[in-house]
Amino acid sequence: MENPGLEHRLTESEGAPPEAAAPSRTERKLAQVLAGAREVILAHGFQAASVDDIARAAGVSKATLYRYFPDKASLFAAVMSADCIWRCEERLPVETEGRPLAEILSDVALWHARKALSPEGQSAFRAALAESERFPELGEAFFDKMDGGRRSLVPILARAAERGEIETDDPDQAARHFFALCRGDLFLRRLFCGAHASCEDRMKTHVREAVRAFLCIYRPAP
Q: I want to staple 89 with a disulfide (CB 3.0 to 4.6 A). Which of 54, 148, 179, 216 is the partner?
């Protein structure tokens, strides 16, 4: 007698994606080194971060650390390249289908503000800024990560323009204006004045005003 339940489970199993292979010992050790280095560098900055402190935070010997990275500069480059806080967003983490543009922009602005004003985001920004003159290629790479949200917003604004919700023939420039409005003085205020300068209520008020200003600027002519 056939067992449809078993057949269903087999079909599901056959159609399921293969499980990802477990990371190798080398990959696990590398991740351990990067995690320790990230902790120390974002807390103290590149200059003040010592190899001894990084090895201690990573739980590895200095010999192991140097096996992966010949110097502190290459380790710093790897940390900033792997940093997940400012990773490029290929797709904005907000729902866009069937929603009013104002709601979409509000969600995008709040997502961006929370990431930019988070302790992790601020620490990564400070570390990259402090070393951008010494390592200009890292500064450019970090800026590219920060700019990922703007690039992802461009097609959303292009479709909104096609529907007549906004008026622009340059959605790329419109996206730049939008994120400039989102940042306003919040980012620098948080950077210089500390966490108390960016409470949730103030951030939400700023986001509402930024979205309202953007839609006024790009409102279609009557």
A: 148
Please state at what angle helix 186-193 crosses helix 119-131, rounded to 10 degrees.
Answer: 80
Nearest-Å Rg of the Cα atoms of the chain is 23
Tokens of residue 117, six digits: 């004003």
Is there a single domain that holds both residue 77 and residue 112?
A: no
**What's the domain count of the chain?**
2
Residues 141, 81: contact at Cβ < 8 Å? yes
Query: Six-digit token pair at 36?
Result: 């320790």
Residue entry with tokens 């108390």: 196
Tokens read off for 158: 């292009």
User: Residue 36: which domain range?
Assistant: 24-82
Cα 134 → chain centroid: 23
Q: What is the pLDDT of residue 7?
A: 40
Q: Would residue 94 count as lying in a domain?
A: no
Tokens standing for 145?
Answer: 């990560």
Task: Report the 10 Å Cβ neighbour count for 157.
Answer: 25
The answer to whether 29 and 64 have CB atoms below 8 angstroms apart is: yes
Question: How far apart are alpha carbons 146 and 122 in whole angstroms?
Answer: 12
Task: Give the range among 48-52, 55-59, 100-104 with minimum mean pLDDT.
Answer: 48-52
The two tokens of residue 190 are 């948080």
Closest to 219 (Cα-Cα) out of 168, 181, 177, 176: 168
Are 33 and 65 within 8 A, CB to CB? yes
